[in-house]
Each structure stands twice: as structure tokens, then as C-alpha cells.
Records
---
Amino acid sequence: MKLYKYPGQEYWAQILERPSLPGKKLEKQVRKMLKKVRKNGDAALYKFTKKHDGVSIDQVLVNAQQISEAENEISVELKDAINIAKKNIETFHLSQVSSPETVETMPGNLA
């Protein structure tokens, strides 16, 4: 992760650019990761966390006290930004969920 502090406006478009992968390629990678997690459990999660986040962890779960302590370490502005990002992510992904269509090919015959 690269951190920026007060970047000039000429860098904004580049900084805000979202990386993307073609849907099929991304889906293939995610399926592969899920298969490894199903097979190897937490060990796979530790490995992926190290690989993708650059962090070594020894447990996946955090308790309520750890969450509370972490929450107290961040500013109100950051909390607000996180909540806005959460809402935006949820809205975006919910818009991608499709419901199955029912087609009546003949009266009483639903496909």
C-alpha cells in the first residue's frame, strides 16, 4: 500500500484510479483462493494475509476488547470516512446482485 500526504491535484486522477481485472480472471483467482481456504483453513488465511497485506498474523479472530482499543486509536474523521466507504461498497455490490428471472414458456410451465 502506498500512502500519500497532501498530493498535488495533478496526481489525483492517478491516485484514484481503481485497479481492475477482467471478471473471468478475477473469479478464477478467487475460486482458487477459496479452494485453498477450504482445504487448509486458517493456515491459508495466514498465508494470503502475508502475501496480499504484507502482515504476519497468528490468529484470524479479534475479540471485542481489541476492536474497542483499535477504534479508540483512530480519529472521528477516519471513522466517518470508513463508514462512507462501507456504505459505498455495499451499495455498489448490492447493485450487482441479480435475481433469477422466471419465464413462463407455456401457461403453467415456468422455466
---
Amino acid sequence: MLGGVKPVPDEFKDCYLVLWDSQCDFCRRSVGWLQKKAPGKVLALPYQEQISWLPEEIFEDCQNQFYLRTPPGNFLAGGDALIILLRVVGWKSLSWILGLPVLRQLTRLAYKTVARNRDFFSRFLFKSS
């Protein structure tokens, strides 16, 4: 399908990049919220449009969880990505707390629970559009 390592487009190399599922209403609303709360701090792109350069395993897993690509080129997924993203958007104290070892595990678990039940949680976390 993808085969081999492909270069990241130059315009994405030096930014925090959120890769999200454009077919998921919960994800769309989350990205909208993120862009309102932290305009210009991250670039959010639907993963489906990034097949030309994303590593195959990340592209395939993006249907299960969002990914954050950091400027140095690291890919973080799910709860780990959320913790770093909170720091990037300015919520450093919350990021630090959730990054503590026990809370990091709980953050991962909570993220997986929400990700598996996106439609259900979307009804409670977002106003109807």
C-alpha cells in the first residue's frame, strides 16, 4: 500500500501536526474546539489526505486514535498525544499532572474508552450543531 519511507512535506516539518479522522463527527468537533482554543498553535489535518507521506502503520491506526506529529518528527498517539497537545496549547499544569506515571496510564485508558465510544461521548461533550 504505502511501502517505504516517504518524506514529510516541508510545510509540516516544523509544526505540531494533529492527524484526525475526517469521517468522525466527534473528531471534527474536537478539532474545531482545538482551533478555537489555540488558534495557530497546531495544524490539524485529516489523516485520510496524508497517505502520500504517513508511515503505513500510523496511517492504518489513525482510524482508531488521533496522532500528534512533533516538530522533531516523533509520532505520539491517543492519550500520550493528548498530554503533549495540552502543553502545546498552554495547559501546562494539566499536561504535567496527566503526565505523572499513574495518571498517564489512566489518561491512556480514558482516551481509549472515549475513542471506542465516540458517538456516545459526542452527545455529552459537544452542543448540537
---
Amino acid sequence: MATPPAISSGRYRSAAAHYLPGRPAYAARLVRRVSQLVGLAAGDRVLDLGCGPGMLAAAFAPTVAEVVAMDPEPEMLRVATKTFGHLGNIRFVRGSSDDLSAELGGFRLVVMGRSFHWMDREATLRRLDALVVTGGAVALFDTELRNEIPDNAWYSQFRALLARFGQQDPASVRRRTGGWSRHEAVLLDSTFSWLEGVIAIERRQVSVSQLVHRALSLSSVVPERVGDSTAHLEREIEELFQAVAPGGRLTEVVESSALVARRDDDDHV
């Protein structure tokens, strides 16, 4: 079993303020489609595991009875509570996948947004098997900008710029080395082996401010790592934006995806 990459205690504390204004949001229609696939109803409960600043928790909260938003980083939970606490049915819990227990109750859906790779995936799925109710599901959410799409031609320059300032994400390094299995393979070997993928593709406007926040939200370029070079990084992003955004307008095509995993012996619609 591969050991999950270690996370610096301060890395996501310093990134917390930059997540919501910087990271591409999950498409609303993707959230609706996953809800339909799983059959979410008003009385159901959702667990957002590794919730960060609560992006997915807030997306599912309007349609269910309760969302438990769980994350090990206090600053992430502080941002999430400040931003989405007014919704009233999100319970914010400090903890990681190691803290999953029956005390949390049962869930129709467990969602993870770009967080599963930080966990002991096999052990996490075993714990979730005891929490996900019959007919329920686990869904892994992600966003991606594909270089092959003309609107995203600028993105390779943006990534090259970031590479000069930061260090490679340890999880990304591990995914390119031996011993790492794709999430699909791990799920197929688990109780949640009935898989279905959902994708939503949208063209969006992106601002220079959003790009700065996006950079500082990445584990390889968080303020904890960049330090005194943060101002220099911001200037270079502004210069890149001016070069690739005629008229001050820049577009990106974002692919939001969800890998929905259910038990093979459950009924599937």
C-alpha cells in the first residue's frame, strides 16, 4: 500500500484565503447531475471530506437536510464557516479521513474535491463503507484545463511561470512514479466498484486577480513556500495576463468532472 504524501502543517493554512477566489468552481450542472444519479432527496445527508473552504458543501447544502464539512486545517474551516455558515445546514468538523467514525452518522453521498490523493485511499474507503447508506455513493470531484483547447493556450505559460517559483506538489510527483494507482483502480478494488463518470464543460472569463489567487492556492506555490517572492510572482502573473489577454479579457474552458462510485450489489438507476 502506497503511503499518502505528507502535508506541511502550514501549507494549507496559508492557502486558505486564496481557494474560493482562485480555484475554478465546479459547474453547477455537474452538481445537479450527480445529485440526480445518486437520487439525493431533501431528507438526505452529505459528507464533504477534505472540504477545504467549503465549495462542495455549499453546492449540495440547498437540496439536502445536512452537510457535514470535514477538514483537518482550522483555517480552511474558518474560511468555510465565515463564507457559508449562513446557509444553516452545514456542520463544520475538524478532522481527516483518519477520524471517520460511526459518530458522524450515515450519509447518502460522500464528496471529495481534489482531496482523495492526500489520503490513505484504501483505508478511507473501508471506513466510508460503514458510513454510506445502502444505495449511497462516493463522488470524487475535479476540475481541469486541457491544453488542446485553443482558449487554454495561455495556460501552459502560466504553469511554466509557477514552476519557476514553487516546488512540485509531492502528490503529483508520486502520481508519476512507481507504486501509484489511479483512483479508478483503487475504487474497483473496493466495495465502491460500480463507477460512472460525469463531465461538464464550460467557457468562462478569468481575471488577473483570480490567477494570482489560483497560484497562491496551489500546494507548490502557497505563500508559505514562496515567501518574500510573492510580490514578484504577482507582478509576473500581471505581465503574463497583459501579454495573453487582448483588451483585458481572458477566457478559459474548464472541465468539471465527478467520478461516482457505488456498491456493485446496490440497485442503480
